[in-house]
Amino acid sequence: MAVEKTLILLKPDCVQRRLMGEVISRFEQKGLNLIALKMLKVTPALAKEHYAEHVQKPFYPALEKFITASPIVAIVVEGLEAIRVIREMLGATSGLKAAPGTIRGDYSSSRQMNLVHASDGPEAAAREVALYFKPDELHSYSPTLTPWFKADDE
Ligand code: CMP
Q1: Fold of 3-139
Q2: Does 117 contact ligand 1 (Cβ within 6 A)?
Q3: The dihedral formed by the CA atoms of 18, 81, 138 and 23, expressed in degrees to the nearest 10
Q4: Per-position DSSP letters for 85-154, written without gaps between them
Q5: pLDDT of 20-52, one tens digit each?
Q6: Is 108's C-beta closer than 6 angstroms to any atom of ligand 1?
Q7: Is residue 63 within 6 Å of ligand 1 at its C-beta?
Q8: Which of 15, 115, 117, 141 is geometrically suited to a Cys-Cys bond with 9, CB 3.0 to 4.6 A?
Q9: CA of 55 to the centre of ligand 1 (A)
Q10: pLDDT digit of tens for each residue in the chain (154 aa)?
């Protein structure tokens, strides 16, 4: 099992709806480590870089307007298989389709305003972490409670 880093964005709807603490709590309670965190306003240029694969899609103009409308929080989360684990914690892209118990399933009723972004694979994670953070802004650590979250050989 690999320890992975993944990029999380708490999107403008998450910040405005005061759901930041709720989402961060879920990651912490799962035993994942937050190793970098900042609030920022996404510029149109950063939006185009981050969502490069969606720039040509019909929904992109609305997506850029939404993601640049209000501050977001960028977070690097580290943990065992963190990329897959967090995607599963978020649920399907649309809050209307996401299963109950997932973050989007519990709090979102929208395809666009789906509260949280998470990298969808190792290459995206490396690229997206580097878009928002310099290497010296990442602070890996081993919490003293680690022995109560997993066995030594996991
Ligand atoms: P995210 O996981 O951040 O990746 C791309 C984002 O585009 C997605 O979450 C949604 O916010 C948005 N998105 C994806 N598909 C659609 C769509 N069909 N219509 C509008 N927004 C979309």
Answers
A1: Alpha-Beta Plaits (3.30.70)
A2: yes
A3: 10
A4: HHHHHH-SSSTTTSPBTBHHHHH---SS--SEEE--SHHHHHHHHHHH--GGG------TTGGGTS-TT-
A5: 999 999 999 999 999 999 999 999 999 999 999
A6: no
A7: yes
A8: 117
A9: 11
A10: 799 999 999 999 999 999 999 999 999 999 999 999 999 999 999 999 999 999 999 999 999 999 999 999 999 999 999 999 999 999 999 999 999 999 999 999 999 999 999 999 999 999 999 999 999 999 999 889 989 988 988 8
Say which residue the tokens 């580290």 belong to: 78
CA 11, distance to chain mean position in Å, is: 9
17 forms bridges with which residues in the sheet? none
Which residue has the least CA distance to atom 2 on ligand 1? 117
**Residue 2 is which amino acid?**
A
Is-contact 32 84, C-beta < 8 A? no
